[in-house]
Amino acid sequence: WSKADGRARWTLYDPARGAHQLTTQRLATALRPALERGEFAVEYQPLVGLADGLVHGAEALVRWRHPRYGTLSPDRFIPLAEESGAIVPLGKWVLEESCRQARQWLAEFPDLEMFISVNLAARQIWDSDVVADVADVLDRTGLPARLLQLEITESALLGPGGRPLQALQALADMGIRIAIDDFGTGYSNLSYLSRLPVHVLKLDGSFIESFRDPAGPTTTGPVTTGPATIASSPAAPVVASGAGRRTDADEQIVGAMVRLAHALGLSVTAEGIENEAQAERLRLTGCDTAQGWYFARPGDADRVSAMLREGRSRTDGTADGRPVTG
Ligand code: C2E
Ligand code: MG
Ligand code: MG
Ligand code: MG
């Protein structure tokens, strides 16, 4: 029997599946020793202000540099780490590594007030003293709490009892910003969220997928930079024919979510921006910040430092090049 989804269930034997499960099992038991051997690394992806085109912060995304399987993406091992509980030490390691890096950016670029955004797993909130761990990390790294943002999914907050709520409140009271990750994929109840100590909504990438140039190619890919035919005036009508229709609906939905979030005092970030047309259309909705391959792929901290130094909002340096300082 397998323990997929955390529930034991009977499955027919399937050699291919069997091999996959063997690997999964191996990865799960290898997590803690791998952490001790230093096989994990954090990559950073810039969060760009849509009004000023500048890098305001970065999301920390963990990778496993596996000696045998190469670099593993978090989708491969975070669920295993959640299930085994290894997420607690791993999550704390990511937090400390990321806060140390953010403290370094603060020393190097004191005027920029670059923030770091770190993902928190459900298990960190439910099964560990996350408040004490975060306080400890801030203390040891010297990062001011205002430069730390923690990303939590709606589903991680659901469950019996008030534990997550108390933890969120304590973290918010410390001056940490709380973001709801992948917003729009779960319950997406804004009135419920407005009663929680939440500061930022991160719209899931699926909303942005259909934000494409209706006159351009209908395929999206990394950095497809067709001409942005949507006029820069917010009053420009959105093309609502054929392939444009779904675009129109999603833009209306995102626009409404942004307005409602702003009315509730929340700021809005969007993920998964892959091309210029998406970035421009998103900007017209009033969304505050954005993240995606169009601006920069997740990468090492030095790349983000170079962008900060050169006042760039894109890795290739072709976007808005307004100087960051002076
Ligand atoms: P997430 O928090 O929603 O992170 C955004 C994901 O979108 C990242 O995937 C990022 O690489 C990817 N992404 C960024 N820009 C684009 C784009 O333009 N197009 C597309 N298609 N994707 C883009 P990644 O790094 O594979 O991480 C996957 C998920 O793993 C994260 O989703 C997060 O839920 C989880 N994760 C990553 N690091 C950690 C961590 O340290 N702790 C915990 N608990 N979870 C983590
Ligand atoms: Mg995230
Ligand atoms: Mg996300
Ligand atoms: Mg996501």
UniProtKB/TrEMBL annotation:
Ranges where the record places region Disordered: 213-244, 310-326
Organism name: Kitasatospora paranensis
Organism classification: Bacteria, Bacillati, Actinomycetota, Actinomycetes, Kitasatosporales
Shown chain mapped onto the complete sequence: 433 to 758 of 766
Domain EAL intervals: 24-312
Compositionally biased tracts (Basic and acidic residues): 310-319
Ranges of biased composition (kind: Low complexity): 214-244
Name of the featured protein: Bifunctional diguanylate cyclase/phosphodiesterase
